[in-house]
Fold:
Amino acid sequence: MSDDHAHEGSAAIDLSRRKRAASARERDASRRPARTGRHGVARRFARHPLARAGMLMFACVAMCAVFADALASDLPLACRWHGTVYLAPWITRPTALGQAGCASLRATQWRGDWLVAPLVEHGPRMTDSSIGPLARPGTPGHPLGTDALGRDVFARLVHGARTTLTVGIGATTLLVALGVGLGAIAGFAGGAIDGIVARAVEALTAIPSLVLAIVVSGLHPSSVTLFWTLGLTRWTELARVVRAEVISTERTDFVLATRALGASPVRVFLSHILPNALSSAIVAAAFGVASFVAAEASVDFLLGLRAASDAAPSWAEMMAEARGHPRAWWLVALPAGSLLTVLVSFHLVGEAARSVLDPGLGGHGEGSSGRARGRGRRGTRRVG
Structure:
């Protein structure tokens, strides 16, 4: 009897400990802020291996584009010349320095003057007459060689990243703004507005955007002109997808219940319908940047309009220049590798976003299946 009482007492103590531990866990959970669905999606996206690889590759290219002047410039990062201190002269372009490069400033500096030189002391438009054209990689002062005009290839690569990302991200921003805005308004409003947007979509779809970009770039070669042309002609597909999702979301039970509770149409549209259509825009944005980067490269490669020494550098123009110099492999391999890095990075990000946001491709479904497998494993251990 004493053993039975002791066993019952120990069981009661163990049960009370478990209850106190459970109540403590509940209190801790109540103190934590509630995690919304958006935070869960962002957390799954950040943990996705494809997203991590793509963002790492994009971050490398973006850092080169942002700090291109610190990596390669004909002017120093900072200097003291003839008793005056100049900070970031590549931005301010002081008239006292003129067109002098780092070598010229170093040769004419007074006692006490100093300068902080960039990694490569050559700008993307600067020709080096002392080395000459088509210097091979590894040449002193030119780690990646020079092109047919004697310009530094490394400088044109890092500064060309700005051109590529400006066209890609700028045109994608325009695509998402027009596609989501017009598609959502057409699907929600219906009637005459829907008809007008539908006719505009049909008219622009009939125009080959790449051919139009080539024609416009031939008349006015500019990166700004190119991304406006591409962005204004490629929003039609996203508008169709967003319009269909808005019409589908309008018929769901939670939207009907919100309207029955007296919510205004604007609140229903902004709070419930539009957020559910943004998943397509996020996926389209990732793939859109890759598409626009490829289009910009195609136009520049076909036309070769940036070959002038004072033009903005472009990776595709560097590859087009190699057509006349087939043995200069570095004019093809280096810009092609950079272009491939950008395309692969945004494709990886797009695939990760699609798998996270689309339940049928492993987003929510992957989490539910993982929980089911976990329950199955726990059940197997209990049976054993």
